[in-house]
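Record type: monomer structure entry
Structure origin: computed from sequence
Chain ID: A
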Amino acid sequence: MKFALEERIGSPELFVGRNKELEFFLNWIDNIKLRKSQSTAILARRKMGKTALMERLFNITFSKNNGVIPFYYEIKERKMWVMDFCQDLFLTFIYQYIAFKSRKPAYLRLEYMSDFRRAVEIAKQEELPYLCNIIEDAANAVANERTGILWEIVREAPKKIASMQNEPIVQMIDEFQFLNSKIYRDKELQNLADDLAGGYLSTAESKIAPLLVSGSWVGWLMNLLGIMLPARFRHKFLGNMPQDEAIEMIYKYSQFFDVSVTEETAYLLAQLSEGSPFYISSVLQSGSHEKNLTTIQGLTETLEFETLDDRGTIKFTWMEYVNAAFNAVNNRNAKRIVLHLFKNKDRELTRKELLDQLQLDMTDEELEKKLEALLRADIINRGQTHFDYRCVQDNIFDKVFRGVYQKEIEHFEITEIKKEYSQALEELKRQYRRLLGKYNYHKGYFAEYLILDQLRLHAQRKNDLLKSITRHLPLDFHFSEYSYVWKYDFAPKYSKSFNIDIFARSAAPGDYWIIGEVKSREVKKFSQEEAVEFERKFDEIKTLEKIERAVGFIFSRSGFTKEAEDYCRERGIAISDDERWLGD
């Protein structure tokens, strides 16, 4: 897939997992054509992958070119004059629209994005004359500083053009909560325009141009939507990744950043991070001088650095949330409340229990205001009712917060947290060892990663062995050096996720590429139906990537049915069930 919009994640291959979320939102975008999709808000804290998800949705939708036009805009976390903001928002939309209609992604990267006159010229050049009037209307409103009219033109532009041309548009607005807090009515940036979000009250009901908004301050965004845009948005929470995606991310980032892990430490990190992409990426990219993620001791020291040292990315990011909360309720009681909720992490506490147990010298109303400020800053969670509260269910934030504040509140030594890390990892190690014995976990759960490592690191050296344990290879085939070895994801023809387990690009032009599937199940043999489906994906990838020489390869621990074996032999699909593929 070609990426029209440059993604801030960096290399596109660093986008890992989020398969269910991608499938959900690609289906949601596809349903806009049937006018079935309701405006939706993606809710998650910072660095959980919201922006990466929205940018990838933009690129897939742009690439598919299948009846829905994508628009993506991020509201910056800095002060802006409303005229500058509106002009930037409007022209970003116009140029993204032109890029899609003309199939020229270069328009997304123009240097003259603030030039209305140039936008009119390009619209005419690309035979989109119906854009000219709306661009000129916006330009006139800017020239005369008619803020109200400009905001209406800008806000309504996607819906208006979608309706006029009968072309569905998806409006993706990132960091929506900043709309009411970073935009000012005056050039001096003194008079906050704190009601802009309310302008979307009617726009958000559009079925031909629905909104997909996001926010990394969950409580803040939910409060804004609840007050200014009630019942206009469905909420979609972006949580931690399931274990298989967390493991995949660890291996992917390990390879990309050249940080070694073992099957054991990969499992431990996936478990201790609870599948948080933020924690995984922070640990693998940690600036700790002691970083060695091939041992439990090294993993422990890296976690300690990230959560207890001021230079740690995890600590720095969480302290942004904490400082925002304590700036609003800056006193010792707020810290005591959060700490007390952590001590009772397995249950919810009512305001009355907090008042009694902490002997707080305040009224219930005063406590409610304090708790609401902590909720908006995302450092506590609401319980089942508005009278109940609980701590954030996050073992690592627990340690960050206690590492900074617990000693201030009560007798406490930071070494206790270090002991907790060691104890938790030791227990996870015992759990991992039990899994090894019970399920042959090493050769099951990690099979595809072990095979990827074989191809990336050992295949050329082990050519004779690997050929001897693989059936139906071409006569002139040999395992060679590969310039890229990983999975293959998301062919743009499909609204649902499309992936293959092995995609190995040969370094030399004449050598075979390998496109493969791994099945590590214990009992069920690989069937002919599965072989047919694999061949379909194999052919699709060859076409998409314009590959001339490639061999299809299937590894199945439980073997193959006779029909599948015969089919693979006839179709020239290489197969193996020999566990030597998984290493020595």
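Annotation 1: The chain has three domains: 12-237, 241-439, 444-582.
Annotation 2: The longest strand covers residues 482-489.
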